Amino acid sequence: MSDLLERLRGRGWRMTAQRRVVAEVLDGDHMHLTADEVHARAVDKLPEISRATVYNTLGEMVSLGEVIEVSTDHRAKRYDPNAHRPHQHLVCARCGAIRDVHPAGNLLGDLPDTERFGFTISDVEVTYRGICPNCA
Amino acid sequence: MSDLLERLRGRGWRMTAQRRVVAEVLDGDHMHLTADEVHARAVDKLPEISRATVYNTLGEMVSLGEVIEVSTDHRAKRYDPNAHRPHQHLVCARCGAIRDVHPAGNLLGDLPDTERFGFTISDVEVTYRGICPNCA
DNA sequence: CGCTTGACTTAGACAGTGTCCATTGTAGGA
DNA sequence: TCCTACAATGGACACTGTCTAAGTCAAGCG
Ligand SMILES: [Mn+2]
Ligand SMILES: [Mn+2]
Ligand SMILES: [Zn+2]
Ligand SMILES: [Zn+2]
């Protein structure tokens, strides 16, 4: 089942009921949940799990590169278990729906050397904004 | 001096000391300030200006398209008076320094039709991340 | 000019999101 | 089974942003 859980076990994580539940929630069908949304779903499976533990666990997963933090609006960060296939996000400006997208081309190459100001650039983050078919 | 102020006057804004000061701060040398940083600088010029007014004024300037909201980290929004020349941002992952950059190429064109899922896309937001010369 | 009025400002309460810490619990190895 | 280092807990706290009720004032008008 949980590939995410497998990878975490392989990294020497102490396996607790709480971490199992957080991993299960992330691997479920709902993508791009906020920490509090993850917590709400986790509570359904393990009523005594605390908010702090969910925040800690998500933060650790991000540090390990197993989960990605996404912030498409200026509100809560969202947690994305799709960390092993590089992708970007397409966001509906009206309802907030989020889709994974895979742009063609070399995004990093679009930035000329004269525009790099001596930075060593390691990452490009792109958010496409528009109106989804439902909202149109 | 303040081009920003001129444009706002032209839009029928009631001209108050508070709005003048916020516009002056934005047009100063420091770019990409947070609302509370704008407030701190505004207080130096007009001690009684309130936090709420700074938030309100910045929000109105954004609505009018005279200022852009930027969120490069997952913390406070930053306010960018450079609203009339489209650009993107380059951010130092260590110290948070922000530079304006002007990518070549058609950013929107990088997203194939098959990756648009029926959305009407109106905007692309790009953040380049790396390490600045100072931090390297 | 001085009045009038509706737009603007203010202080502070409140809400949403995230962090911290002292205490308690427990996974997993000896 | 026991130990102990690591993890979980709950609640206080910090940061960012929003809201409201009451007071203030810019600007148009006589
Ligand atoms: Mn994603
Ligand atoms: Mn800028
Ligand atoms: Zn929509
Ligand atoms: Zn730096």
From TrEMBL, chains A, B:
GO molecular function (one): transcription cis-regulatory region binding
Cofactor(s) this protein requires: Zn(2+)
Signal peptide boundaries: none
InterPro entries hit by this protein: FUR, Fur_C, WH-like_DNA-bd_sf, WH_DNA-bd_sf
GO biological process, one term: regulation of secondary metabolite biosynthetic process
Residues holding Zn(2+): 92, 95, 132, 135
Chain segments annotated as transmembrane: none
Protein family per UniProt: Belongs to the Fur family.
The protein, known as: Fur family ferric uptake transcriptional regulator
Organism: Streptomyces candidus
